[in-house]
Amino acid sequence: MNIKEMSVKERIEVRNDLLDELDEILAKAKQEKRNFNSKENRRIEEVKALIAEIDQESLKEERGGMENMTLIKNPDEQRELEQRAADEKAFLTWVKENRATGGITAGSNGGVIPVSIASQIIDQVKNMSGILQRATIWNVQSDLNIPIYDFTQHVVSYFTEGSSIADSNATFTTVALKNVIIGTLTKVSNSFINRSDINVVPFLVGELAKAIAWFLEGELIAGVGGAGKLNGLAQITAGQITTGATTMTITPDELISLQLKVPQVYQKDACFLMNPATFAYIRSLKATTGELLFNETGLSSNFEYLLLGKPVLLSDRVPVMGVNALEIFYGDFSGLHVKMTNNIEIKVLLERYAEMYQTGISAFIEMDSALAEPAKIVCYKGK
Question: Cβ of 275: how many Cβ atoms within 10 Å?
Fold first, then answer.
């Protein structure tokens, strides 16, 4: 299969066929409730490599740097992609040819560094952070007060005509989300930027997104707030925490109790969140007969692992098993509210790294976060 000799249409068709093949392999494994076998694993890697080759080849097409290979049938969508391509070209041209003029910000709305570039960074950050994908996102720039109401305190009772009905003790409270400034910087070789055969925009966007996503993932999990800092799941109240009975040990009974601690109304979109090392420990638990206790080997539609019938979200930013460590979170993570704007201030730093023959690209974003609905999430804490 020579990808380079194919037309754009042929590559699209081949890519779609490969995706269908992946879906079929996944469906078969799920139906038979098993892991992929060695033959399927090899084929999956082959298909992923072919898809990556097709995507790489698409970057070389003279479409103004556009990476999307989907056939465009909607005129509005076509115009949006064309505008994005034009924005990328303007950004790349300025970085290459006009670095000596200093920095310019995305806030100028349509200048050399367009809003679409900032939006690409935000989109990639969300895609890279599993917890951010599941949180409730508020795309506003000003301070935000979120109304919170505990429905469990609302009185609902039988009523006899002519009598007085009891009122509710539940009241609305608010959680305030303000502006916390977060920044990152990536340095790029000038020789890399000046090479005309390389589109440096995806690289810059990707590097900035990875740096922001790594930081946010950690803060949204372990952040405890304070002046100028984000609040994360570590804000969880004592009543939502289950402490293990034995040091460096997690039992199946404890996992089941933890899962059932979340009200049923929130179970539909609930999932586990833990460090990969913790999940490896749990999956290795065995009965006295030597059989694995957790034999749910199927995968969900998002290629997530399953535990007790629920998806498992893995993150290197969750603490590993340890004394007093918040090892496992479970629940509906929409209870974590995040206010973030789609406007990122981007600056190109010239003189600072001139002697290194490098160009600095910095990005700043204003946001805030809080565990606004704590009843949706519980936590397992190591003894």
Answer: 20
List, as one string, the DSSP characters of 278-305.
HHHHHHT-B-TTS-BS-------TTS-E
* Contact criterion met (CB below 8 Å) for 182 and 215: yes
* Other C-beta atoms lying within 10 Å of the C-beta of residue 66: 16
Q: CB within 8 A of 317, min separation 6: which ones?
A: 214, 217, 218, 221, 222
pLDDT truncated to tens, each residue of the chain (383 aa)?
677 777 777 877 888 888 888 878 877 877 777 767 778 878 888 888 888 788 777 666 544 444 444 444 466 666 666 666 666 666 666 555 544 444 433 333 223 345 566 677 777 888 888 899 999 999 888 888 887 776 666 667 777 787 777 666 666 778 889 888 888 887 878 787 776 555 667 777 777 788 888 999 999 999 887 778 999 999 999 999 999 999 999 999 999 999 999 999 999 999 999 999 999 999 899 888 888 888 665 444 444 688 998 999 999 999 999 999 999 999 999 999 999 876 677 777 777 788 888 888 788 888 999 999 999 999 999 99
User: Which pTM value belongs to this model?
Assistant: 0.68
Distance CA 364, CA 352 (A): 18
Taking the C-alpha atoms of residue 267 and residue 141, their distance in angstroms, rounded to an integer, is 32
Residue with tokens 């034995």: 246
